[in-house]
Amino acid sequence: MRGASTLLLAIGVICASLGGADAVTLKAVMHSDVKIVDPIWTTAYITRNHGYMIYDTLFAMDEKGEMKPQMIDSWEQSADKLTFTFVLREGLLWHDGKPVTADDCIASIKRWAAKDTLGQKVMSFIDAMTVQGPSRFTIKLREPTGLLIFALGKPSSNVPFMMPKRVADTDPSTQISDFTGSGPFVFKSDEWKPGDRAVYVKFVKYKPRTEPPSGLAGGKVAKVDRVEWLAISDQQQAINALLAGEIDYVEAPSHDLLPLLTADSGVKLVDYNPLGNQYTFRPNHLQKPFDNPKVRQALWYAFNQKDFLQAAIGDPKYYKVCKSMFPCGTALASDAGMDGLLESNVQKARALLGEAGYDGTPVVLMHSTDLQVLTNMAPVAKSLMERSGFKVDMQSMDWQTMVARRAKKDPPGAGGWSALITSWVSADILNPVMTGLTNAGCDNALFGWPCDTETEKLRDQFARATDPAEQKKIAEAVQVRDTRITTHVFLGQWYQPIAVRTSIDGVLTAPVPVFWNVEKRNAS
Amino acid sequence: MVGYILRRIISTVPVMLIVAVLVFLMLRLTPGDPAAIIAGDNANAEQVALIRDRLGLDKPILTQFVIWSGNILHGDFGESFFFKKSVSELIASRLEPTLALSVSTIILAVLIAVPLGVLAAYRRGSPVDRIVMGFSVLGFSVPVFVIGYGLIYLFAIKLNWFPVQGYQRIADGIPGFLQRLVLPSLTLSVIYVALIARMTRTSVLDVMGEDYIRTARAKGQVERVVLFRHALRNAAVPIITVIGLGVALLIGGVVVTESVFTIPGLGRLTVDAVLARDYPTIQAVILLFSLVYVLINLGVDLVYRVFDPRIRY
Q1: 3-state class of A201 per DSSP?
Q2: Which of B28, B44, B80 to mutate to test the interface with A (most CBs of A within 10 A)?
Q3: Predicted ipTM?
Q4: Structural domain count, chain B
């Protein structure tokens, strides 16, 4: 008996060592280091990406932008549109080998909804969530909403990732310390060295869906054994390492370095996210001069998107003029209300400022200097605004200082601000409810604090609408309303390709960079 | 001597206290909000406020300082806001790469610079002297990151002799450890070679005209012995001062070099912590650097006696 177990152990060791020899490791440099590993606790995109590695979702957005069941096997909605019944797929396991249950999912939804804005909105419609069996649960609504399935498959921060109940029961304001998920990769917390690397290994017991992968939906098949995210903060060095073949994948190479990459035969660029990102100009509604709606309206005439995009991105292949609040290429994209706007009509802008009685109060424009995609934006805004008669005081600072300062409601002279420019991942701004900047709920709104009951009424109507045509009509109304109240001005869409070695295939077209389906061939 | 060392060690206490107060205050007065950074771009004011509450940042600054200094007296530097690890653990995990880089840089710099300086002094006015001094000026003038990128381009990308970036722990194999240390150490050592070579030349020139050098030559000593035993030993005090200063200044160079070569050491930890406004980590790292600075100065003072027994404390 002892001999047999020794033999088995020896075979095991040999197999393990053979496996180790053949193991395929993919080395990637992401846009940031993984510092926080609780995707519900923070909305940081790197933590969201980490979440997609190790967690799974009940629903997921496919390549066409439609929500498809992911952990869910089947679901139905009652005739009165108030009760949803969900059945989990068979064979779903947590990384510790225990089965995924309905109880786990309800606890996860609750924790997510306590933090996420869209989740909070959806929870206001939910009457009860009830376990009906180990893999069956129901969600009963107080009144119909078209948001529930969309929210459960929400592609970007905060994503409703499923966690074991013991983890999901953690107070949403406390970071989790148990990283058990049920996704296609397992987080190696023992190998995680913040500032150096985060390591993931293939979850061999993961049961992918049978459909081919599409966006964030379909079969999540891990085709590499190990993924290492290396923290290389210096862009030039990440590119050097990719060119030298030391790493396989750079998530966000800066646009000015792309020519270096296209010139190398060992590297290719992959346009993985067709939705891209959207630049936005955010005025502070609480402070002069943007407390005046007419002054804000002048911005629509002062700006044109092309000047911004050309200065920030440069290559037209990676940007698109898109006069729509919701990203071009998505269901709610529209040019409603945009006639004559964003065309740098200086005369009209000046006339509006005159009508508004603009007294030359300087616009304190915060200029972020350390994020390459934002650095050139504020100077363009300053120039276009000054041409239209604004007085602009552009103040340069690093991004983190800007993040802290934008939370201040004080006047610009007392440490506050008048305007800033930022960029949003398109997957975060797909409809009026999830788009943070359209929130015009005064003190409850995001920085800039717009206050408009009409917009809030429309957003509420959108949450209640269940028909896509009706939703589109409401979204257009929100956009038209925005051209009057100017919660924000959209400055165009831009795209970020991923750079990979030519030995890498299978990068999926999705709003988030994901690593299932990615394979690495031996370099010849 | 022992009394002197004890006095010097005790004198570090007020220095460290002043550093602690200054660092704590400067961080609180600098713009930036760790809670907003942690919460992410999509977070609303309520989420940020909750995080601020969790981190204790909503307490008055004085209360925060009392809690922090009380914890330090118990040897607890707190928990990083971001990494969810104790700061001591973080620092310990980053110590090896920084020590390896610093030690190899100083060894390399001394081994190259001292002979070069002595040679330049011995061949004063010759082309050798001019080349060494020219290199010295260049070493001072070119920023560390430019040297780093230049070496990477030549030796890592074009010649493929060394890796572009990264660090391998000594426990994972000495060849890989050394291979990954060559370019960063060379990069960082350039400025110290320039500094030490220049100081060595000047100091050796100062003593070359002394009577005991003439006596040594008159006794028939070979020039090598005259230079290294008599001249260099007597010129050692200013050279050691410069080396000591160099070790202390290394802290700044390490920050840049570790960032360029992606070495997960204390330098990068400092940069990451500053960018993220990770107060507990910044405070602990700066206290550590200050302590190292003070100890290096003490060490230099003690080494003086080895080279010049006339010095008394």
Answers
A1: strand
A2: B44
A3: 0.72
A4: 2
